Amino acid sequence: MGDPSDVTIWHNPRCSKSRGALELLGELGVEPAVVRYLEAAPSRAQLEDVLRRLGTDDPRTITRTGERLYRELGLADADRDALLDALAEHPALIERPIVLRGDRAVVARPPERVRDLIV
To answer: Which residue, 101, 95, 11, is CA-closest to 61?
Structure first.
C-alpha cells in the first residue's frame, strides 16, 4: 500500500463529496493533510503541479465549469493561462476534492476515486 502519510486533500468542508472523500480516507486508515483551499488559495505553481500529478495539461480538469462565476468571468473561451490565473484568484472555481499522494492525484468525484490512490 505504500506510505499513507503522504496524502493531502484539498478540502471544502461544506461540500458533501469532499466530506465523503475525507471520511473514506479515514476508513482506509489514512489521516491526510487537509488543505482548506478556499482559505489558503493555491498558487499558480501549485495548480500546475496538481495538473502534472493528474497527468493532464488541461486546467478545465480541475475547474468547476458550472459555477456562475465561471460564466461571469467569461472563462468558457479562456486560454490555459487565463484559466489558471482565474483559478488562483478565485479558488471557488477549483473542483473538489482533489487528493494528492506522491506524484499522483485524483479529483475525487465520486469520493470512491480516492481508492485509486490508496489501495
So the answer is: 95
Whether the predicted pLDDT of 25 surpasses 70:
yes
What strand order describes the sheet that includes 104-107?
33-35, 7-10, 98-101, 104-107
C-alpha cell at 15: 461540500
Residue 79 known to be catalytic: no
Can you give the pTM of this predicted structure? Answer: 0.92
Catalytic residue among 15, 35, 54, 92: 15
- What domains does the chain contain, in order, with CATH numbers? 4-118 (3.40.30.10)
What is the spatial distance between Cα 85 and Cα 104, in angstroms, rounded to a whole number?
23
